[in-house]
């Protein structure tokens, strides 16, 4: 097969039937990975807490929160590389794709050298900045491992672009599965042989990073063998193009990270290492709700781009409105279950000592049914090239969050609940009011066009939460069996009620069309 044909075979426009099959395969692959990762992490977090202790475990999410600040650079770089590579591969221009790939590789290499210097400085200053309950050497090694893992992930993102361009989410998820299995497997094996410590956890991170990068490289060369790593093919003009697009994506990610990754930093500086571990243990659950949104939302991006290219504003409005409502109604179930059954779940999962954090958990998770449902609108803004204002909105919201969180932590007397409350407040204001109104203005619609669909997930969230609280008050849910039975009852009732009462006829047609039962969708 020639390099040109290898490039063009993926981007060729598929038939409607092929689109439906690929959508189902990708969604099923994302769902399978979510089930695997969610089940594994639900078991892994209490495993680490039990073996390391809450205070020592708290170093893990704290390190992740600090290191995630580097992700804003990697996401911006990979977004720009994805865009230019997608254009080159869509045109069948193998030479241009090779230049873009290597220009991105050179840019990423330079960025990673800068990150190495900043990482070394952060690791050195670690004991002077944070409250640590573990030996300094262990904490420093864990932070260093996190930084090196992030650098490997940046390169993995570049090599992983062909899987996104060619819509091979199934291969992408295989690589992610192998990476996660290595990370957990190494820790479990070593803890069985040696005493539990953070040295082992850090080593597992490094090994899993090597596994992930190797898998992404092999898949990249299998799907697009012409994308060889040849730095001399990089072009200064293409590097400048990549830097220009990266700039606004990075600014936007910076604002988002202010709201998502500073929680534990503020908790550590304000409430100490022990509370950092307790709060950090809860983060897995809202992360899982976010992962549920990622099962479907990214797959909608090509559909929005296609409608924009065709000048179909009405199609964009219909798709975006239905997507906001459908995603929100879907997320209302897991978010509501967490809010409604938080007390018995925490008691069974992490132990009775964590049950008093159920309100904090509800504040961390409940708003996601609303704030995550509008993520599809980000693709609309990208299609209309309106990311500059979005970036300023994100940074402004991040700065507001920082001020509100610090003020509530100091003066409200709410404890760690103040941090979760600040996050929920700012996320809801940004994603349920400002972004939908701005997106509607960009498309040329009423400011409330994308706000009205949020009523359905809000009603669904309230219904599931109240049902869960009522069952907790009526029955003693003291075992996994009784808790599962109560959750199943609420899930079945919500599924029927949501389909009949919360969705519109257009929403139902979209659902039937996604599974191939409605040809008109």
From TrEMBL:
The residues forming a coiled coil are none
InterPro entries in UniProt: Poly_Biosynth_Transport
Q: How does it sit in the membrane?
A: Multi-pass membrane protein
Signal peptide range in chain numbering:
none
Question: What sections of the protein cross the membrane?
Answer: 23-45, 65-85, 106-129, 141-161, 173-194, 200-224, 245-267, 279-301, 322-347, 359-382, 389-408, 414-438, 450-471, 477-502
Q: What are the entry keywords?
A: Cell membrane, Membrane, Transmembrane, Transmembrane helix
> Where is the protein situated, by its record's location annotation?
Cell membrane
GO cellular component term, pick one: plasma membrane
Q: Which domain of life is it from?
A: Bacteria
Protein name listed in UniProt: Putative membrane protein EpsK
Top-level taxonomy: Bacteria, Pseudomonadati, Pseudomonadota, Alphaproteobacteria, Hyphomicrobiales
What gene does the UniProt entry assign to this protein?
A: epsK
């Amino acid at each position: 097969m020639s390099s040109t044909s290898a490039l063009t075979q993926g981007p060729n426009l598929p038939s409607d039937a092929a689109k439906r099959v690929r959508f189902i395969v990708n969604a099923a692959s994302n769902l399978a990975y979510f089930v695997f990762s969610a089940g594994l992490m639900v078991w892994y977090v209490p495993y680490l807490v039990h073996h390391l202790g809450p205070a020592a475990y708290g170093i893990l999410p704290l390190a992740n929160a600090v290191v995630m600040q580097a992700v804003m650079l990697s996401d911006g770089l990979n977004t720009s590389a994805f865009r230019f590579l997608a254009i080159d591969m869509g045109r069948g221009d193998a030479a241009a794709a090779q230049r873009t790939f290597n220009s991105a590789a050179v840019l990423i290499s330079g960025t990673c050298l800068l990150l190495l210097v900043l990482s070394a400085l952060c690791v050195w200053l670690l004991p002077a900045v944070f409250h640590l309950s573990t030996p300094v050497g262990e904490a420093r090694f864990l932070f260093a491992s996190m930084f090196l893992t992030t650098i490997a992930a940046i390169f993995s993102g570049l090599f992983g672009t062909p899987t996104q361009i060619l819509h091979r989410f199934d291969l992408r998820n295989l690589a992610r599965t192998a990476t996660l299995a290595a990370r957990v497997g190494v820790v479990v094996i070593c803890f069985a042989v040696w005493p539990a410590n953070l040295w082992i956890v850090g080593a597992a991170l490094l090994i899993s990073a090597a596994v992930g990068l190797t898998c992404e490289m092999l898949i990249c060369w299998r799907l697009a063998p012409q994308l060889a790593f040849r730095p001399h093919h990089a072009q200064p003009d293409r590097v400048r193009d990549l830097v220009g697009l990266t700039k606004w994506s990075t600014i936007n990610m910076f604002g988002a990270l202010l709201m998502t990754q500073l929680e534990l930093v503020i908790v550590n500086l304000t409430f100490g290492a022990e509370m950092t571990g307790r709060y950090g243990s809860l983060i897995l659950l809202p992360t899982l709700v976010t992962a549920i949104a990622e099962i479907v939302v990214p797959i909608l991006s090509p559909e929005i781009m296609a409608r924009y290219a065709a000048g179909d504003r009405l199609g964009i409005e219909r798709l975006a409105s239905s997507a906001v409502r459908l995603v929100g109604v879907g997320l209302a179930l897991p978010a509501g279950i967490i809010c409604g059954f938080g007390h018995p779940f925490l008691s069974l999962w992490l132990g009775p000592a964590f049950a008093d954090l159920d309100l904090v958990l509800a504040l961390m998770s409940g708003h996601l049914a609303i704030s995550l449902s509008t993520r599809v609108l980000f693709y609309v803004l990208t299609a209309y090239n309106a990311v500059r204002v979005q970036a300023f909105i994100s940074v402004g919201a991040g700065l507001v969050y920082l001020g509100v969180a610090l003020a509530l932590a100091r003066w409200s007397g709410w404890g760690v609940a103040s941090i979760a409350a600040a996050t929920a407040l700012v996320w809801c204001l940004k994603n349920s009011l400002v972004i939908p109104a701005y997106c509607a203005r960009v498309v040329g619609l009423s400011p409330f066009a994308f706000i009205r669909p949020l009523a359905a997930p809000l009603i669904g969230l309230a219904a599931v939460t109240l049902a869960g609280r009522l069952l907790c008050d009526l029955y003693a849910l003291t075992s996994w069996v009784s808790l599962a039975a109560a959750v199943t009852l609420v899930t079945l009732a919500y599924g029927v009620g949501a389909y009949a009462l919360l969705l519109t006829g257009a929403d139902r047609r979209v659902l039937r069309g996604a599974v191939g039962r409605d040809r008109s969708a």
